[in-house]
Amino acid sequence: ATISTKVIAKINAGKRAPTQAHHTATHLMHAVLRSVLGKHVAQKGSLVNEEYLRFDFSHFAKVTDEEITKVEALVNEKIRENIPVVIKEMKKDDATATGAMALFGEKYGDVVRVVEIDPNYSIELCGGTHVGSTGELGIFKIKQESAIGAGVRRIEAVSGKAAEDLINEQFDLIRGIRDILKHPKDIGKAIENLVLENGELKKNIEKYETQNIATIKNALLQKVETIGGINFIGSIVNVSNAETLKKICFSLKNDLKDYVIVLATAIDGKPNVAIMLDEAVATSKNWEAPKIIKEHITPLIKGGGGGQITLATAGGQDSTRLNEVIEKVKSLL
Within 10 Å of residue 333's Cβ, how many Cβ atoms? Predict the structure, then answer.
């Protein structure tokens, strides 16, 4: 069929310009990576668009922070030099004779397109769009570096307006942190001190928690009830987190035999329950803690839970029936 309709193809300049910048930045970075990391670096994949560039390359180790800094510095140096980006077509043999890099496994014709950014710096066979000179990139920043496979690393970076936006985001973040810390002279030292203080507070909390567990444990051991040859402890305790319920159970088991323990608490108005069974009791009664939780506890507290055969926990929405929880487990004995 013959198509006679006329169409108008337009380039989206708003997308084309940053895409060009990221493509040229990719060439610059490729050359710098080979200089900083070694000539073994070879392109394994690439993506460029108006938002960022992504470059996959062969390398045997994580690119260090120092190497990242050096790569950024060298690319930005080439940007400031405002080197013309020369694009020309030539015979493939002539192009390779100049040292132009080609993608491994890529098929090329007899005549190839060559993108040159200083003949002593970067020459690649490339069919993509580029800026007229490196100064158009403005600035270059690496966002992240990661591994995507054995011997293959990935760098994501930005240039131009995208790099400016990234820098502004980072400065806004720093300003926000400075405001939170009440404008210290040395923000790094202030954060370091905060981390140290937080560490000390955690140690003190853990020390208090250990003491509290011991106190609760001793009090609970005074409340042991023996029902049908089973030592039963059931109680509502005052603790700050659900994990402490389990720690108390483990602490109690060291002083008990043939036991069933059920502990409950309300944290921020929400119920939490822990059940621990002695292995001998679980075996003789054919009981499983998660089954007890599911069938008898969660309906009362309007929640869910689970665990292992001898230890299970549950959380819910209704903390008004915790006494019923204790009595329900007790009634199973």
Answer: 15
Q: How many CB atoms lie within 10 A of CB 83?
A: 18
Please state the rounded mean pLDDT for residues 291-309: 94
Average pLDDT, the chain: 93
Distance CA 219, CA 241 (A): 19
User: Which domains does the chain show, CATH number per domain?
Assistant: 13-162 (3.30.980.10), 217-331 (3.10.310.40)
Stated pTM of the model: 0.68
* Beta bridge partner(s), residue 289: none
User: What is the mean predicted confidence (pLDDT) over 25-33?
Assistant: 97
CB atoms within 10 A of CB 198: 10
In this structure, the strands spanning 111-117 and 230-236 are unpaired
The b-or-e profile of 226-252 (16+ CB within 10 A means b, else e) is eeeebbbbbbbbebeebebbbbbbebb
Return the axis-axis angle of helices 13-36 and 65-80, rounded to nearest 10°: 120
